[in-house]
Write a structure and sequence with these properties.
The chain is an alpha+beta fold and 178 residues long. The protein contains five helices and eleven strands. It binds flavin mononucleotide. Flavin mononucleotide (FMN) binds next to strand 2 and helix 2.
């Protein structure tokens, strides 16, 4: 099979892992929510998650200032709100009000959890050494919540340029990974 060269600017469209999450933050009386798909697991336990939060985003400032956040995992039914939160800045807009998202107090961090999401991961900033150079943050999940009624979550996965995949069939195969 003949393959063609792929422009480097499109590489992210193959590797973006998803699921798309909503990153919520709070600092000095302001709270915010931002859509994020550039994240990766880095350790099983304690769970470490690396993520890119661009310094052009208001959330970068709130995350760096508070050193805390929540990763909220939405299902496809929230897709319009998710896209809305990813195309609006919280600098001048209260996105919770604008997109009808419910801020629920978290247990271990000041950032709010989003009630409509089926899972919420309360995180503390574990390492910001690459924040300046790459806007890369390492988060430690200190408390995790899951809705037991959601068995096969229909998470959304970003493919770039407004294309998303919705999680589908589960297949079980032998695997030595945890
Ligand atoms: C599907 C999707 C995925 C996104 N992923 C990221 C990401 O991983 N990192 C990032 O910095 N911005 C990402 N963004 C862009 C931010 O969500 C966007 O700039 C947002 O308006 C920032 O909001 P804020 O200024 O209130 O923090 C994404 C946007 C969309 C729509």
């Amino acid at each position: 099979m003949k393959k063609r060269s792929l422009p480097l600017g499109r590489v992210y469209r193959l590797l973006e892992p998803g699921p798309v999450v909503l990153l919520s933050t709070a600092h000095r009386g302001r709270s915010n929510v931002m859509t994020m798909s550039w994240h990766t697991m880095m350790e099983f336990q304690p769970p470490l998650v690396g993520c890119v939060v661009s310094d052009r985003n208001y959330s970068h400032e709130l995350l760096r200032g508070s050193r805390q956040c929540v990763l909220n995992i939405p299902e496809a039914k929230l897709a319009q709100k998710v896209v809305g939160c990813g195309n609006t800045s919280g600098r001048r807009t209260d996105k919770f009000a604008r997109f009808g998202l419910t801020a629920v107090p978290a247990e271990k961090v000041d950032a709010p959890m989003i009630g409509e999401c089926f899972a919420n991961l309360e995180c503390r900033l574990a390492d910001a050494r690459w924040a300046r150079q790459y806007s890369f943050f390492v988060l430690e999940v200190v408390k995790a919540w899951i809705d037991p009624a959601v068995v096969s979550p229909r998470t959304i996965h970003h493919r770039g340029r407004g294309e998303f995949m919705v999680a589908g069939r589960t297949v079980r195969l032998p695997s030595r990974a945890k």
